[in-house]
Amino acid sequence: MQGLKDKLDFWKRGRITRRSALFALGYSLVLSTTLFSCSTPEKNTQKQADSSSSNTTNTANTSIASSGQKVIRIVRSKQLTALAVLEKQGSLEKRLADLGYKLEWPEFAAGPQQLEALNANGLDIASTAESPPVFAQAAGTPLVYLAANSSDGRAVSLLVPNNSTVKTVKDLKGKKVAFQKASIGHYLLVRALEKEGLKLSDVQSVFLPPPDANAAFSQGKVDAWFIWEPFVTRNVQKKVGRVLIDGGNGLRDTNNFYSTTRKFYQENPDVIKVFLEELQKAQIWSKQHPKEIAELLAPATQLDVPTLEVMHGKYDFALEPITEKIITKQQEVADKWYSLGLIPKKVNVRDGFLKPEEYTKITPQDVLAKQ
After folding, report:
1. CATH of region 153-246, choose from 3.50.50.60, 1.25.10.10, 3.40.630.30, 3.40.190.10
2. What order do you get walking across the sheet with 241-246 strand by strand?
3. Cβ atoms of 175 and 224 closer than 8 Å
4. DSSP string, 93-132
5. How far apart, in Å, are the Cα atoms of 217 and each of 111, 208, 242?
6. Which region among 59-68, 117-126, 260-269, 333-342 has the lowest average model confidence (pLDDT)?
7. Handedness of CA 309, 318, 281, 115 (dihedral sign)
8. Contact (CB, 8 A) for 155 and 228
9. Are 2-150+255-368 and 153-246 the same fold in CATH?
10. Helix 269-288 to helix 91-98 angle, to the nearest 10 degrees?
């Protein structure tokens, strides 16, 4: 109940519309955290994340009012990604300035928090895995899938403590496994358990956002943690944890996505087109320059350059065209969450996808050529 109260307080502080407030209530019920919710460090971290989201919304609104300049808010990536490169290189900022826009890069703990802010007008373009959009659609967000990104399965791993006796996924039966609810870690845990003939109910799910999960894992409060880079490598380097499995070798069968709201898409097609063009350039550069991207993003990831150069091989750095295969797979994800009782209604993911001719107008030509 305290977690729900914190969520509602966040929306009150942001002075969001009645429709967004109703969304917040529904989304909070879908994404509410349970175990560890009464632990002081976890509660404080979550409150700080909520406050950060609220401040982002208020800052953006103030910026528009004071300067008359439109503000575009794209989520900040602190991972080894082309999106992070795009921010550091500054090319998108220059192009949008020519169109009369100011660019901001707000931070969020994970995908679900991004999509809460997206619906509440605190973010314009999100970058998430496959599951957050499904949960958002189930909660009523008028979401639009703008583009698909490579899966990068090896960049998501299931960690166990260095001294753990757990040797296989089967050994996790009855144990506490932490992950951000509605995230790629959640989805991959389901898949990993099912491959071993187990169900999600066979483990104790500990729903924690990454900062809280990191603290719980390092303090030995959980037996495993499904998380993405750079959390994985940081914990391995510090000898806090070791990788039990990762999302490679076919475990991950979905894409990452860039998304926005229907309203933003309809009102800003020129911005979206420019964003995807510059993002594609950053993808190509990132793939071709492993040392340079490592040097560029070492401060953001808090990892040294040699480590990031090795990590580079976990990523494909590729935008993918939206195809029927991708839409079908996303529908399978939605159906899986509904069958597990984790979303309140069936979701038709196609409601969030554009028509082929609409994608043709905003997607870079070299990406469309992959179809």
Report:
1. 3.40.190.10
2. 204-207, 176-179, 224-228, 156-161, 241-246
3. yes
4. HHHHHHTTEEEE----SSHHHHHHHHHTTS-SBEEE-SHH
5. 20, 11, 12
6. 59-68
7. negative
8. yes
9. yes
10. 160
Contact 204, 35 (CB under 8 A): yes
Evaluate the omega torsion of the peptide bond into residue 210 and state whether it is cis, within 30 degrees of 0.
no
* pTM across the whole model: 0.84
Residues 113, 121: Cα–Cα separation, whole Å:
12
**How many C-beta atoms lie closer than 10 Å to residue 87's C-beta?**
21
Alpha-carbon dihedral of residues 27, 29, 30, 32, nearest 10 degrees?
A: 110
C-alpha to C-alpha distances, 235 to 157, 208, 241, 303, 340, nearest whole angstrom: 11, 17, 5, 11, 31
Domain boundaries, the chain: 2-150+255-368, 153-246
Taking 90 as the threshold, does the pLDDT of residue 206 lie above it?
Answer: yes
Q: What is the pLDDT of residues 298-320, one digit of tens each?
A: 999 999 999 999 999 999 999 99
Which superfamily, per CATH, for 2-150+255-368? Periplasmic binding protein-like II (3.40.190.10)
What Rg, from alpha-carbon coordinates, does the chain have? 20
**DSSP one-letter code for 351:** G
What token pair was written down for 244? 């039990």
